[in-house]
Amino acid sequence: MSIMRIVAIAFAVAATEYNIAASAQAQSPSYSTNGDAALAALIGEALERNPRVRQALLEHRAAELRIPQAGTLPNPALSLTQHVFGPQTRVGPQTSSLSISQAFPWFGTLSDRREIAAAESAIRGESYDERRAETVREVKLAYYDLAYLDQALRITEEEEELLLHYEALAQARYSQGFGQQQEVIKLQAEVTRVLNRRQELLRQRVDLEAILNILVNRSVETPIAAVEIGAGPVASVDDQRLHATGLGARPEVRAARLAVEGGGHALGLARRQYRPGLTVGVAWGNVLGRRDDAGLAAPPPDNGQDLFSLTFGASIPVFRSSYDAGVREARAHLAAAEEAHRDAVNGVALAVRSSAFRIRTIEGQLALFERALLPQAEQALRATEEAYSAGVTGVLELLDSEEVLLDVRLGLARLQADYMKALAEMERAIGSAFPEEEGS
User: Fold this and answer.
1) 79: enclosing H helix or E strand
2) How far is Cα 220 from Cα 226, in angstroms, rounded to an integer?
3) Staple 341 to which of 256, 358, 423, 429, CB 3.0 to 4.6 Å?
């Protein structure tokens, strides 16, 4: 293989990769990151490298290339005839003939085929956008679950330090004769329980780290830095506005609408089967001059003149039962596409309602945890610590207060992650970013 050939292949491969990346960037789905640079980097990498996303893009490319094929006339037919015993004509024997013909489908047939191919290509484009939107959703859900685990690990680490402090306090009380050794043992057991919880959280983190790495198409062992959720965005949940946005932006709805349009063109194409196809041809015949005695003695004026002819033909659509079945089939496909569109519209309504209810519910729970449960649990633990230091209460009450605060802090971290996940689900439901504002 020559150097120039190798260079040409390298340029072709580079151009293909560039076109894929450029197309992915041009058709980037609308999504919010709320200023999280790490999340934005993960999403960008996933949209560029995820195999399913790239597969959907290439399938869309292939569908686009079917459009010019669908609108092309059938190949012309060329025929060559060589006579073994050429027929004798007035102007001489005919030795061979050459003809070329072109078939033309009925008026509008090619345009219908192009429209059907264009609709199928557009549907593939929506499938590509759907795959990208689903990838963004998957990255966000795994990312926010990872954020919860990292927050839970920080909380349990602080709890471990607090319990170790309580253990040292109990040891001091016991050495001074104010406490019991059983208190020290209970605190040590509680420290062991927290350590076991940390190990379980670390196991879950390894799984989520692998999921995120697969989504961005890199080694499952690639480490991902600790994730921290900042201030939650302000969510303005207007069901009607969100529903209207989903009807216009959700890829599934747009794809279903395009399928209805394509079904209409397919029905028109089926009806054109009742019309004849046309054929136009041109023929040329090679004629030799007369070589017989009479021809040589008195050659005709057009002796040896070649033959030229035009032909016109038409197919005869006689199998009407077959055409009737084709029309009924196209109508059934169109009706099915209309039902699919209605189902997609209903899916938007369901997804918006479900996500909106979940967002409002979590908002209420967050307010309860932040304004009531967390301050109360912290205050209760402080009071129990003072009572335990004064010898008024025992270690069981102290551990109960500590366990309540731990559960509240973990519950608050879980709600914060679930809130961001609910926003991601709403974003997927409407096919658009939701929201971008930062919370106060």
Assistant:
1) strand 77-82
2) 16
3) 256
Measure the CA–CA gap between 362 and 355, rounded to whole angstroms: 11
Q: Is 154 exposed, middle or buried (0-12, 13-18, 19+ CB in 10 A)?
A: middle
Backbone angles phi, psi at 232, to 5 degrees: -65, 145
Q: Is the pLDDT score of 379 beyond 50?
A: yes
Tell me the C-alpha distance between 205 and 227, whole Å: 11
Distances in Å between the Cα of 198 and the Cα atoms of 149, 156, 191, 204, 338 are 10, 7, 11, 10, 52
> What distances in angstroms separate CA 249 from CA 30, 142, 147, 253, one per listed residue?
9, 24, 29, 8
Span 195-216, mean pLDDT? 94
For residue 202, pLDDT over 70 is answered with yes
| Model pLDDT, residue 303 | 75
The CATH superfamily holding the domain 34-72+108-269+345-430 is Outer membrane efflux proteins (OEP) (1.20.1600.10)
- Is 177 a residue whose pLDDT tops 50? yes
Distance CA 305, CA 288 (A): 8
pLDDT at 84: 75
What's the rounded Cα separation, in Å, for the pair 359 and 438? 16
